[in-house]
Amino acid sequence: MNNLYQHINENAAIVAQALDAHLKESTTKQRPVIHQENLEVLIERLQLDQHIASGDLSGEKLKQFVTDYLNATTRLHHPGFLAHQVAVPHPTGALGSWIDGSTNNAMAIYEMGPAASSIEYFMINWMLSKIGWKTVPSNQQLNPESLHAGGVLTHGGSLANLTALLAARSAQVPEFWKSGNPGNLVILVPEQSHYSMKRAAAILGLGEDNCLTLPADPDGRVQPSEMNQQIEDLATEGKRVMAIVANACGTAAGLYDPLPEIAHICKQHQIWLHVDAAHGGGALVSEKLRHLLNGIDQADSVVWDAHKMMCTPTVCAAVLIKDHRHLDHAFEQEASYLLHAKDQPGFDFISRTVECTKAGLGLRLFMTIAALGNAGLASHVEGLVEKAKEAAQLISSRDTFEVAITPETNIVCFRIGEDDDTQLEIRRRLLERGDFYISSTLYRGVRWLRLVFMNPLTTLDDIEQLLAEIEAIQQQILTP
Predict the structure, then answer these.
(1) Is 211 helix (H, G, I), strand (E, B) or coil?
(2) In this chain, where does the modification N6-(pyridoxal phosphate)lysine occur (predicted)?
């Protein structure tokens, strides 16, 4: 075993140097933001078979492997990265991932990671306080008489949404865990909801067909004025609404649903309100932007991904529940080798999560925010949103382009021409060139090109260059 650690300083230096070169190449656009080679070609170049057979990944061979690996990665630090809701990670937060991977403290139970558990506990309370919910010290955390909030960090927003809806099921249908599905439960979600909602409905035993769409205005925001009628109609059919989901913000165009009005209706009908703030929850750290989330404190559960707008390495998603008891009772089962009487100077997160083994996700989140500070984090989020608004104005000023809607967050949907297939072909050719990496989405029944501003290094000059490339590609398509 000692051989495992013999060259740790040398190998760590190799990795650090390679990462430093990678970041410099990316931020200065020396290499393309995306370059997709054939999978088998990459496997061969990385010499995966040889390294596994020889067990030789150290020294010069490690250097070559890491260099080849980084050259094949998608470069999120490149100013042309505009595709997806994934953070450009802060270097200090990335060190948190390195520390966590090295110590490997599976901290779902406190004794397996006191430091990691303590930091996660602190960060959960930090996020709860941003919503405006009550927090308590750890020795009161499981007090069944206390009406405080609770939460846990999970490996991604999809798992976080599933966990939140598990808590909703526990609160609304407590007999479900043992007795099963009564057969009349439905979940109501926005038309722009994340695909994980239908997945969660299926996994929870409700069935995908019982994940129904809420009424929406022409832009796709939930329309509260029509919700009462929908709920009453479902009741007439013998259906029971277990939960209503609101977006903060939607994944396609980045729009926020009217939370106060939706919360009022949920309270009237005693329906669980879940707010999917996986992407847009970052606005809570900014005094300028948190108005977008007015009413979020009236929700029963919130999901908020730190690995989106908060510079935190993937993955780090928070499940936040207004009444801790609904999360603490969401998983009713026994694991006697873990759950038993013992000295407990800390808090076990295992009762709040699907995962038995869990990484120290709070460390990467804490180290990111501690490096930026509250003001720095707010400035980062505000800067991304402001850049998106400026880009939308720039695109709108060009006669050849159409912007779908004025952005509320850091997402801009736009198109050139009238043909949906042209948008997809433009994206394909952009990815082939590699100067820019953008996405595409369906919104209001139309195909749009989509920019997500995640990189603070992206400038309006970059957007000017992107638009010029798109116009040139369109001309190539029209005159082959």
Answers:
(1) strand
(2) 308
Dihedral sign from CA coordinates of 41, 44, 46, 49: positive
Q: Tens digits of per-residue pLDDT, 436-479? A: 999 999 999 999 999 999 999 999 999 999 999 999 999 999 88
Residue 22: its H or E element: helix 8-27
Q: How many structural domains comprise the chain?
A: 3
CATH code, 472: 3.90.1150.10
- Dmax (CA) for the chain in angstroms is 75
Pair 59, 123 in one domain:
no
Q: Are residues 113 and 156 in the same domain?
A: yes
Please give the pLDDT value at position 176.
Answer: 87
CB 201 within 8 A of CB 187: yes
- Tell me the C-alpha distance between 197 and 189, whole Å: 8
How far is residue 194's CA from residue 115's CA, in Å, rounded to a whole number? 33
Domain that holds residue 421: 373-478
Distances (CA, A) of 298 to 258, 259, 265, 291, 295: 12, 8, 11, 14, 6
Question: Residue 462: enclosing H or E segment and its boundaries?
Answer: helix 460-478
Per DSSP, what are the bridge partners of residue 274?
245, 301
Q: Phi first, then psi: give them for residue 110, nearest 5 degrees.
A: -60, -40
Judge whether 257 and 296 are in contact, CB under 8 Å: no
116 with 363: CB under 8 angstroms? yes
Q: Where are the alpha helices (DSSP H) in 343-433?
A: 361-396, 420-433
Comparing CA positions, the residue from 248, 158, 171 lying closest to residue 197 is 158
pLDDT tens readout for residues 7-41: 789 999 999 999 999 999 999 999 999 999 999 99
Q: Do residue 362 and residue 444 come from a single domain?
A: no
Q: pLDDT digits over 325-364, tens only?
A: 899 888 764 433 334 454 568 888 888 888 889 999 999 9
CB 407: neighbour CB atoms within 10 A? 24
